[in-house]
Write a structure and sequence with these properties.
Blueprint lengths: L7 H13 L10 H29 L5 H34 L3
Helix pairs in contact: 2-3
Length: about 100
């Protein structure tokens, strides 16, 4: 059996197909996809908690303003972090698109 080396163009084309057009696995999600879902869900949960704490404070059920402000600040910080991660992912995607093959 003779092994012939691929030409540079054929080798790069094979790499491009694997990177740009990955084969989806049915019934499961990638670790990156599950990580993104978890981050978004966590930020959403913190926002819901902050909204609930603020509503409780306005109704007079919660007397500690510090807990309310802490919940609001956690939600804000989580949202900012999520947006920065999104911005970095968009920048990385744009940088990959600029690479000429």
């Amino acid at each position: 059996m003779e092994i012939r080396p691929l030409s540079e163009a054929a080798r790069l084309e094979g790499i491009r197909e694997r990177v740009i057009e990955p084969t989806p696995v049915k019934g499961s999600e990638s670790p990156f996809q599950s990580l993104v879902k978890n981050v978004v869900a966590s930020a959403n949960d913190l926002q819901v908690d902050a909204d609930r704490a603020l509503e409780d404070f306005v109704r007079g059920e919660e007397q500690d303003i510090h807990r309310v402000m802490l919940a609001i600040n956690k939600a804000e910080l989580s949202f900012k972090f999520m947006m920065e991660v999104r911005n970095k992912m968009v920048e990385a995607y744009q940088e990959i698109n600029r690479i000429s093959v």
